[in-house]
Task: inverse folding
């Protein structure tokens, strides 16, 4: 049983005892009152009886006095009046004594009988009104006839008094004694009752004092418990509150909630109102259903935890400095049960921002570690000379990108021109990184391309849109520095140099072709010839062009095995590259036996991208339509991927060829093949391998 | 790694100054990386940053731009000292904005003002240095954020 339960039982017991004592006291007081009333009556009777004792003797004496007055012929009126007065007093007192219930009726009857007899003798004496004396000269004053009769009556009464007054007095004394005894007994009982009452009052007072002290102690303990609870609620870092069946917050909550939600009006606030501006309405609706489920007795709490929709909630709130910040909160719900079922749902809220961010950093770190491992594997597979060459190219490319960024721009058009230049450079670098299986670099470049793409999609461009780009560019440069450092360490730790490929470009393209086939679910045979004879001056140009064209073949050219089978073609496609010296220069041929290019498809893509108008499309012949594939921004791909979709690849090829002073031609037969023929002017270089 | 939010905070601090003081918002140009020493304009306000990040944030502006800015602010004194006070005030606004946004994470010094045409700022090893052109009317200043 709890402390509160003990206190409750004791309180009820104390109240019971107090009530019993109060009843006892009431009874004692009532009895005391009755006793006191009885005592008062007895004392009155006692006084009356005491007074009555003297009257028979007094009446006797007054009769004697009256007789003496008559004998000496003195005026007897006063004596007679005094006698009458005493008789009247006796009558009155005796009637009072009779009226009082003193429990001695027999004795009273006897006294009454004797007194009545006495009374009958005295009444004529008192009632005498004649002249008792006769004055004569001879005899002097003598009794008259009436006087003699009066004298005889007085003598008879006096004689009666002498015989019975004492007995009458004894009877009255007996009554007085009995009344004294009764009064004494009543006084003793009254004293006892008073004593009992005082004792009961003392016990009652003691019980009340104990009750007050206990209550005070209990209240102090309750206050201390409340203070301790308040201290806990003030100190604890988690937010705690109770929800009732109506999803309203109770009157007690922890102060951490104030920091978490930047408000203080939690009492009576509905859970919905608490979160309505912080989480999506769908999540809130799901949370309400979840809490309703918790109120069901049959729902398994541990099982419920696994479907908690608020186990990690992202909120945006203003911090104490008025700055909006993103925090992550975790809500946990626990049922609080009582004897009559579920009383509340206890909700605990934890700010898990640090752990979420740490977890993300760990994931990112793990991702980086994996990426570095992949990169390391890629670097191990790559010819060191080619790797260093790529790093130099990438470094130069990124510096060129920074130079493009640096060009002053204020208008939307100026910013958009920047984006075109950035995309070309990035796409070219990404192709080369992918060809060398440097995936971590290729993925970062792809992410940069995505940012550029996001900028392109904006209605109006400003410098602020380029802030994420410049940060990513900086990260890219830092990553390249890391790769270069690893490359230099790798070169130091390699005991023997990796065997140099006889034709590094061909090897790179073969590796890339195999990777692209895997990535796009295609099958083909890649043949390369004459690439060892590419003069150094054209090495980068040829590499860039072939990488872009190979990616195009992977995405647009070679069909899937199923499609090829349905078109009665061999499941295994063919991509061939040939470089040879021709008349007055060099010739690079690139051919695949894939889907070819349909001029109408190219026109439709150009129309979608608003590169041409409807009327221009209608006026365009096949040759002009095919030329569109070299326009920046044109892509026939359905979406953006690592290898296509941005409309940059063939633009890069065309610009590289033009920069080298060469020309490019394309011939195609839809459904059968696509062939690119690139001619480059002669150089003074002799036949040299690509570096 | 410097986050976009941090960079944006410094940029906003700068553009806010123009919006409030000159009643005419400034726009930002295309940002780029500081690769080699960059000559500063005639007047520059620098704040040193320590704590979560280490480095310097610098607002550098040409005299002509500051003169127009003073005119827009109804100032009649175009002296050297007033120009210095003005770039100091811009740097002060940037630091105030950063303090509000970052609180105790960043310890930001009081502005240090440089003047003259021979000053330059160079990228320091271990820091990431960004240059954000601040375009206002026909003039252009630079905000340089160089933090580790």
Result:
């Amino acid at each position: 049983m709890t402390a509160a339960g003990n206190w409750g039982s004791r309180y009820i017991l104390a109240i019971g005892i107090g009530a019993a004592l109060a009843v006892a006291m009431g009874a004692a007081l009532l009895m005391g009152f009755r006793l006191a009333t009885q005592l008062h009556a007895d004392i009155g009777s006692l006084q009356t009886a005491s007074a009555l004792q003297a009257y028979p003797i007094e009446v006797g004496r007054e009769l004697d006095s009256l007789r003496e007055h008559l004998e000496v012929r003195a005026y007897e009126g006063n004596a007679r009046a005094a006698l009458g007065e005493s008789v009247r007093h006796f009558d009155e007192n005796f009637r009072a004594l009779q009226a009082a219930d003193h429990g001695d009726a027999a004795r009273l009857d006897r006294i009454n009988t004797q007194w009545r007899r006495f009374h009958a003798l005295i009444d004529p004496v008192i009632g005498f009104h004649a002249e008792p004396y006769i004055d004569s000269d001879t005899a002097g004053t003598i009794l008259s006839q009436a006087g003699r009769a009066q004298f005889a009556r007085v003598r008879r009464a006096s004689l009666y008094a002498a015989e019975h007054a004492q007995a009458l007095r004894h009877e009255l004394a007996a009554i007085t004694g009995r009344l004294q005894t009764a009064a004494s007994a009543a006084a003793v009982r009254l004293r006892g009752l008073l004593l009992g009452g005082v004792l009961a009052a003392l016990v009652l007072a003691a019980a009340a004092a104990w009750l007050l002290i206990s209550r005070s102690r209990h209240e102090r303990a309750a206050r201390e418990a409340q203070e301790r609870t308040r201290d806990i609620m003030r100190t604890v870092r988690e937010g705690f509150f109770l929800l009732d069946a109506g999803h309203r917050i109770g009157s007690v909550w922890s102060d951490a909630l104030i920091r978490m939600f930047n408000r203080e009006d939690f009492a009576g606030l509905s859970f919905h109102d608490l979160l309505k501006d912080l989480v999506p309405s769908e999540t809130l609706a799901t949370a309400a259903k979840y809490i309703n489920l918790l109120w069901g007795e049959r729902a398994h709490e541990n099982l419920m935890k696994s479907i908690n929709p608020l186990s990690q909630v992202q909120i945006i709130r203003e911090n104490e400095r008025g700055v909006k910040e993103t925090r992550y909160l975790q809500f946990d719900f626990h049922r609080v049960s009582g004897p009559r079922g579920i009383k509340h749902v206890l909700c605990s809220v934890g700010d898990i921002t640090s752990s979420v961010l740490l977890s993300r950093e760990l994931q990112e770190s793990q991702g980086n570690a994996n990426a570095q491992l992949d990169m390391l594997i890629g670097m191990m597979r790559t010819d060191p000379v080619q790797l260093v060459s790529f790093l130099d190219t990438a470094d130069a490319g990124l510096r060129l990108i920074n130079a493009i960024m640096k060009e002053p721009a204020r208008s939307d058009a100026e910013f958009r021109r920047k984006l075109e230049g950035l995309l070309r450079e990035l796409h070219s670098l990404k192709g080369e990184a992918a060809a060398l299986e440097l995936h971590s670099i290729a993925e970062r470049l792809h992410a940069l391309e995505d940012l550029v793409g996001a900028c392109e999609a904006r209605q109006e461009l400003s410098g602020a849109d380029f802030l994420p780009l410049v940060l990513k560019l900086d990260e890219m440069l830092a990553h390249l520095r890391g790769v270069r450092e690893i490359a230099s360490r790798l070169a130091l730790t390699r005991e023997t140099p990796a065997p140099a490929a006889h034709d590094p470009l061909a090897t790179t393209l073969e590796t890339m072709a195999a990777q692209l086939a895997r990535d796009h679910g295609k099958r083909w045979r890649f043949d390369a010839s004459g690439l060892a004879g590419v003069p150094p001056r054209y090495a980068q140009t040829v590499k860039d062009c072939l990488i872009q064209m190979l990616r195009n073949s992977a995405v647009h050219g070679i069909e899937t095995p199923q499609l090829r089978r349905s078109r009665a073609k061999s499941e295994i496609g063919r991509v061939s590259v040939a470089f040879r010296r021709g008349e007055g220069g060099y010739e690079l041929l690139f051919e695949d036996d894939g889907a070819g290019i349909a001029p109408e498809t190219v026109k439709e893509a150009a129309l979608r991208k608003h590169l041409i108008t409807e009327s221009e499309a209608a006026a365009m012949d096949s040759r002009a339509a095919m030329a569109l594939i070299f326009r920046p921004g044109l892509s026939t791909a359905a979406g953006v991927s690592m290898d296509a979709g941005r409309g940059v690849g063939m633009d890069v090829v065309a610009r590289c060829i033009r920069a080298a002073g060469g020309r490019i031609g394309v011939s195609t037969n839809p459904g059968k093949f696509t062939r690119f023929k690139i001619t480059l002017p002669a150089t003074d270089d002799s036949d040299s391998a690509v570096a | 790694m410097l986050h976009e939010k941090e960079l944006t905070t410094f940029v906003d601090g700068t553009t806010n100054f123009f919006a409030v003081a000159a009643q005419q918002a400034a726009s930002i140009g295309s940002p780029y990386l500081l690769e080699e020493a960059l000559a500063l304009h005639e007047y520059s306000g620098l704040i040193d940053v320590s704590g979560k990040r280490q480095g310097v944030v610098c607002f550098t502006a040409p005299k002509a731009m500051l003169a127009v800015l003073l005119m827009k602010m109804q100032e009649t004194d175009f002296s050297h000292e007033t120009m210095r006070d003005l770039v100091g005030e811009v740097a002060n606004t940037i630091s105030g904005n950063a303090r509000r946004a970052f609180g105790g994470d960043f310890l930001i010094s009081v502005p240090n003002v440089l003047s003259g045409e021979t000053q330059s700022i160079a990228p320091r090893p271990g820091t990431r240095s960004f240059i954000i052109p601040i375009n206002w009317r026909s003039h252009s200043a630079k905000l340089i954020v160089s933090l580790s």
Notes: Residues 608 and 634 of chain A are 9 Å apart (CA to CA). The first helix of chain A runs from residue 3 to 71. Confidence is low (pLDDT under 50) at residues 686-691 of chain A.
